[in-house]
Amino acid sequence: MRGDIQQLRKKLSSVVESMGYExxxxxxxxxxxxxxxxxxxxxxxxxxxxxxxxxxxxxxxxLDVEDPIAGHxxxxxxxxxxxxxxxxxxxxxxxxxxxxxxxxxxxxEGRRKLVGRLLGMHGKDVVIMDNEGRKxxxxxxxVVKARLVPEL
Length: 152
Description:
This protein is α+β, with helices and mostly antiparallel strands.
């Protein structure tokens, strides 16, 4: 990806929010043949296909002008779904009390994955109580991927 990912995130999030949607976050998966830029959006009543199409049309225009991604890529606009991804500190606060699955950059006391109940944030650390009752504090920058675990 050309340029700074933070700048791209900032630009795309401002477009999404100006359209009246909540910017949940984005993922970029590079590949030699066709990269994937996935943007998650939400709103109070949920996301329909038409919402994804509207946002895709607007973001495609921005991406065509800015040209931040070298080569071919696919833009995908998605609802966060029941297994909502968590990207920012405020997501971990907002969904405190929910079940979540965390994947870490590095081993933490022999574990790279944690599953349990989110307890929120403590400073810059995500706090989670695993299913065995152990409380973990994980620096947010060590979290590679985090998603809610649907409780049906």
